[in-house]
Amino acid sequence: MTSTAASCLLFLTMNSFDEAELCFPELLNSSCRKTMRPHSVSILTYILLSSISLLTVTLNLLVIISISHFKQLHTPTNLLLLSLAVSDFFVGFLMFFQIVLIDGCWLLGDFMCILYYVLDYIITSASIGTMVLISVDRYVAICDPLHYPNKVTQKRVKICVCLCWICSAFFQILLLKDNLEQPGRYNSCFGECVIVINYIAGLADIFVSFIGPVTVIIVLYMKVFVVAVSHARAMRSHIAAFPLECSVSVTANKSELKATRALGVVIFFFLVCLCPYFCVSITGQDSLINASTAAFVMCLFYFNSCLNPVIYAFFYPWFRKYIKVIVTLKILQPGSCETNML
Fold it and tell me: Residue 33's Cα: distance from chain center in Å?
């Protein structure tokens, strides 16, 4: 082979290799490069994220159908769980966008990029707001049980949930205003999906969406825990002293304590899964951590939405019973919404 032919072959090989690394091979000078990783790793990541996404959507859809359809579940606390399930349901769909970004290329255009970020921010903010409402609900139920039915009504909870979602949408749209006005303005190459938030707005977002709500959640649940322990001791003493006179109020208290414990587990795992993501954002070390750590933080963040329905199934027998009714299609029978499983 002549030196000229060898040079041509080398050039063609290098050119095809470079094109294989580009998100848009036809845009040689302006296309972003793909994230190169072993094929087996990419396939495993696709399968894992797709499975989690499908499971998240399916499980939360069961929660949404259960609470929406069966009238017996239309309680203030369950309405809050419904709001949380809706946000988790959409998180499952947003994970498909993460699957698109596995190789580091965004192929859906600038508008879909900013739409993804807006929805992601709104859903995350609404989830955190719903967790605050759940903490307030448990605080009133345990610390002021006599006034709970009057203070926490279905109408008030619906108003609070609607305000939570509306305020989340308004705040996050305001936060991303510059990015919405000109989608893709901060992209350095084609195939990139980047947004930029100024320092002051980012700081405000961290305080409003994370530090403030988490502080409220922790303080309220610490108070709930102290009161719940004292209530549990009082109930044990009452049952020991009057074993034949277990009143309805004692049964009701047990039910509230059980619900508080279950929702406490939900909040605990929510904070465990959420804190690493926001801690990276607060410290500003997101550019220093490696790709594996960043992927783990994001997967942990999204996995929480899949975990919540599993917690309900573990703690709530009624949830398992209603799921059986839904899966066996008995929900299609006339009058199924009146089914009593409690």
Answer: 30
